[in-house]
């Protein structure tokens, strides 16, 4: 029972990494970039025993040998397990093959992609000052109303009004009232 639960967690981790960064991914195949991310995030890559080059070589070997088509750039869950089996003895040198494989599975089980190094919104005073629309001058000031909300197209383009009056004429629309008075 515990074995099947562990394998379920391994499959869950595989699916999470398979869809990471790809909106069209189904979660059934893992590409090389996400395989490398999985190995890095799950601490399979260590400086001494397993390097990123080893990870790439194993991925190429597995995807070309067992892939759905030769020269495939993705691996399925079964091929993913074969790749872990291939890296396990190299990562855990002092253990038997089965123990190394179980240790490898424990590294991956239940993990998901991390977002370390992703750009976050800056909260400094300088950014607040630069994005305060009340302090904008010149043509930029006209793109926003008094509340700081953008005016859309009206603020970006000079929209021509075909009223017959010059642009900044103050008494626009008063002609009819002047002619009726006479």
Which helices and strands appear, and what pairs or packs with what?
Blueprint: H1 2-19, E1 30-31, H2 32-41, H3 52-66, E2 74-75, H4 77-91, H5 97-108, H6 125-130, H7 138-141, H8 153-156, H9 175-181
Antiparallel strand pairs: 1-2
What does this structure look like?
With 182 residues, the chain is mainly α. Helix content is 50%, strand content 2%. The protein has helices at 2-19, 32-41, 52-66, 77-91, 97-108, 125-130, 138-141, 153-156, 175-181; strands spanning 30-31, 74-75. A two-stranded antiparallel sheet has the order 1-2. Helix 1 packs across helix 2 (32-41) and helix 3 runs antiparallel to helix 4. The longest helix is centred in the N-terminal third of the chain and has 18 residues, at 2-19.
Oligomeric state of shown chains = single chain
Q: Which word captures the global form?
A: elongated
Order of helices and strands: HEHHEHHHHHH
Helix % is: 40-55%
Rounded to an integer in angstroms, the radius of gyration calculated over CA atoms is 31 Å
Number of strands: 2
* N→C terminal distance: 100 Å
| Helical stretch tally | 9
Mean pLDDT: 81
Physical arrangement of strands within the biggest beta sheet = 1-2
| Largest beta-sheet characterization | 2 strands, antiparallel
Beta strand %: under 5%
- By secondary-structure content and strand pairing, the structural class works out as mainly alpha
Stretches where pLDDT is under 50 for at least 5 consecutive residues are none
């Amino acid at each position: 029972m515990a074995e099947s639960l562990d394998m379920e967690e391994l499959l869950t981790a595989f699916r999470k990494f398979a869809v990471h960064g790809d909106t069209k991914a189904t979660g059934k195949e893992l590409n090389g970039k996400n395989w490398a991310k999985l190995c890095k995030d799950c601490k399979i890559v260590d400086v001494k025993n397993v390097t990123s080059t080893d990870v790439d070589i194993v991925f190429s070997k597995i995807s070309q040998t067992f892939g759905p088509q030769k020269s495939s750039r993705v691996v399925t869950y079964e091929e993913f397990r074969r790749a872990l089996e291939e890296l396990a003895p190299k990562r855990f040198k002092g253990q038997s093959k089965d123990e190394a494989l179980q240790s490898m599975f424990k590294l991956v089980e239940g993990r998901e992609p991390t977002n370390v190094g992703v750009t976050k919104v800056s909260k400094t005073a300088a950014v607040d000052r630069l994005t305060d629309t009340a302090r904008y001058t010149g043509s930029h000031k006209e793109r926003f109303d008094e509340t700081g909300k953008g005016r859309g197209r009206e603020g970006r383009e000079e929209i021509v009004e075909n009223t017959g009056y010059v642009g900044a004429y103050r008494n626009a629309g008063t002609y009819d009232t002047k002619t009726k008075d006479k």
